[in-house]
Amino acid sequence: MIWAIIGLALGVVVGYYVPFTYPDNYSLYVSVAILAAMDSVFGAIRSSMENTYDNLMFITGFFTNAILAGFLAYLGDRLGVPLYYAPIIVFGGRLFQNFASIRRLIFNKLYSSKKRTMTKELE
Amino acid sequence: MSGNKTKINMLVFMTFLLGIILVLQIKSVSSTHGLVTLKSIQEIEKQIEVEKNEIINLNNLIKQKEDEYKRYEDELDNSGSIVPVLQEQKLMMADISGSTDIKGRGIVVEIRDSDREIKDGENPNNIIVHDQDVLHIINDLKLAGAEALSVNGQRLLFMSEIRCSGPTITINGKTFGQPFVIAATGPLDEMKQAITAPDSYAYLLKSVYGIGIDFFTEESLTIPKYSKTINFKYLKEAQ
């Protein structure tokens, strides 16, 4: 969790100084891709807390999800159908699910450690 | 546990990428504020131009003032007083205010009534020189950059009148008949053009009404000083 925040902060700083912007037309695709990438990161945090983390799964998920989401938004634009709703709903919903799981895991950890100390004191 | 370490590395790297994309997106979206019309671009360009000119003018002013200050200081260092500089400035003010004779490159324009015969039923006013004509030509000369002006030896200052008095005109309270001789110092080419350009008033007078307009340039033209004394009765500096 902390590592994720550190990485994010580093990225923000580097991104701020990179002298590169892209045309407004692509902002929709990139925003959907960002959503997918965020979902992947949250998923990775959750799975690492559940001890089911798989490196390959994370990396491939990060990139393919982002690319697919961006591509879908692009395709939607070409076809005249707002296909970008699909990534927004799927990844947005999963983002909240992952976040809820992370919360639950953190609270479980806190409670279990509290219980342990309480039982220790009782003993 | 090497797996744990690569896990952390990977997570940091991926979130790093995410951060970069995130900020790029924010920058790209916020750098464009919707549609920009050609008109607004032109207006902004104009504004920039005006501001740039303003900056140049202010810088020039700063430089001018610094030079002035330096002159005072130099004079103070050299001779211990700034009186010579002030005297020099006083002379310059005298030149500007018309209380000294001016000598310099200039143009002399002579305006006389037309020699041609009046056509049947034509208004005789068409062939004589009026105060308006003189005024208009003087204005054209001023526009061309004339710095000191005189008409028939009368220095033109800010309150010099050019008034119609029958077939004559009155300048600085003195009345003159034609021809009227305008002398002006300033940029020769521009002043010449102000008299000869096909769009100019002098050209119109000459070609349409046949008024006699002659001019010649002179390397050292003397423009006399203002002959009367100036007494201000109502002039007061604003508080």
From TrEMBL, chain A:
Transmembrane segments: 25-44, 56-76, 82-106
Domain of life per record: Bacteria
Segments forming a coiled coil: none
GO cellular component: plasma membrane
UniProt keyword annotations, A-Z: Cell membrane, Membrane, Transmembrane, Transmembrane helix
UniProt subcellular location: Cell membrane
Topological relation to the membrane, as annotated: Multi-pass membrane protein
UniProt cross-references to InterPro entries, sorted A to Z: DUF1290 (IPR009709)
Similarity-based family: Belongs to the sbp family.
Name of this protein: Small basic protein
Automatic annotation (TrEMBL), chain B:
Pfam families: DUF881 (PF05949)
Family per similarity comment: Belongs to the UPF0749 family.
UniProt keywords, alphabetically: Coiled coil
UniProt xrefs under InterPro entries: DUF881
PANTHER family noted in UniProt: UPF0749 PROTEIN RV1825, UPF0749 PROTEIN YLXX
Organism lineage: Bacteria, Bacillati, Bacillota, Clostridia, Peptostreptococcales
Protein name: Uncharacterized conserved protein YlxW, UPF0749 family
Coiled-coil ranges (or none): 41-82
